[in-house]
Specification:
The chain has about 300 residues and is α+β, with helices and mostly antiparallel strands. Helix content is about 25%, strand content about 30%. The chain has seven helices and 16 strands. The strands form three sheets. Strands 1, 2, 3, 4, 5, 6 and 7 form a seven-stranded mixed β-sheet that branches.
Length: about 300
């Protein structure tokens, strides 16, 4: 891929056609080289290396000696089974079982300090554990559900309903106006962001919508602009907790933008030169979203195309 956003590029074979086989999955757990990532409340355990930090990989046996019944199967890495185990609770495990092994970091920091492949695996892990934590009971009958397929499915023992991890699609778009003296892009600001921070517009897709329709609706709702054309840019898994960000460039009919004061408190129009200054951190007033966010890449693509 020409552009690979943070949390994408996962190198694992997720073995979706095999992990439903209980015997096969048991064989992976017994594999002598099986390894595991350790996380605490969604934070991966990392250790320093020469060029930054990397995930701490333990043997699965070692990991299961520390954490029982809190594991899941991530996939195969060059035929080696890869699992994850999770600590829960408010007490940092580096003060106990993980003492001296490294530190637990938030996933947004992981996107900066880890390799792309490891950040993607950490995102997959957080997404699966978050889903399991939120879906312990059957939505059909209310009974407690049980883990299956190595953590990729939950089954209700009472009514046999199967439940699978959710991914919520979100359109995230950079409105651009090509009229006037020179092209400009629109950024919006939410009230709770740090001073100066602006970003692309975004919103969840609704039932019965196409990507293009969701993009047009959100731009109209948040900024009062009519979308006349939509161009796909890229997508990004966003594990906060489980979105798929669908990145778009949205051409609008005019520049009469009005923030809705609910989602956005302010909007700004930027020329390409101004957008470049925002991206480089040299603009006197406005700040760009962080480079690991797809919004940053949307702005960069437009600013330098």
């Amino acid at each position: 891929m020409v552009l690979q956003n943070a949390f994408s590029g996962n190198p694992l074979d997720r073995a979706g056609d095999l992990r439903n086989d209980f015997a096969w999955l048991g064989a992976q757990r017994d594999h002598p080289d099986a390894m595991a990532m350790v996380v605490w409340e969604g934070r991966p355990l990392v250790e320093p290396v020469a060029n930054g930090e990397q995930i701490v990989w333990l043997s699965l046996k070692h990991a299961l000696d520390m954490v029982r019944d809190r594991d899941l199967f991530l996939g195969l890495w060059k035929d080696v089974p890869v699992f994850a185990v999770e600590f829960e609770g408010s007490i940092d495990p580096t003060h106990g079982p993980c003492h001296g092994m490294g530190r637990f970091i938030e996933l947004r920091e992981a996107a900066v300090v880890l390799s792309g492949a490891e950040a993607a695996m950490a995102g997959e892990t957080k997404g699966l554990f978050d889903w399991r934590r939120r879906h312990g009971f059957c939505a059909a009958c209310g009974q407690a559900s049980e883990q299956a397929s190595g953590g990729w499915k939950r089954v209700c023992p009472s009514c046999q309903t199967e439940h699978f991890p959710r991914v919520d699609p979100v359109t995230i778009m950079l409105p651009v106006y090509n009229g006037g003296d020179e092209p400009r892009c629109l950024l919006g600001r939410q009230a709770h962001w740090e001073e100066g921070r602006h970003s692309a517009l975004a919103g969840f897709m609704e039932p019965g919508e196409t990507i293009e329709e969701a993009c047009a609706r959100e731009v109209k709702e948040e900024a009062g602009l009519r979308v006349v054309d939509v161009r796909y840019h890229s997508s990004q898994p966003w594990p906060f907790p489980a979105q798929l960000m669908i990145g778009l460039i949205a051409e609008v009919a005019d520049d009469n933008a009005t923030p809705d004061q609910t989602e956005l408190e302010a909007v700004i129009w930027l020329t390409r030169k101004e957008a470049q200054a925002v991206l480089s951190g040299t603009h006197a007033t406005f700040k760009a979203p962080p480079p690991y966010a797809i919004a940053h890449q949307l702005i960069r693509t437009w600013a330098y195309e």
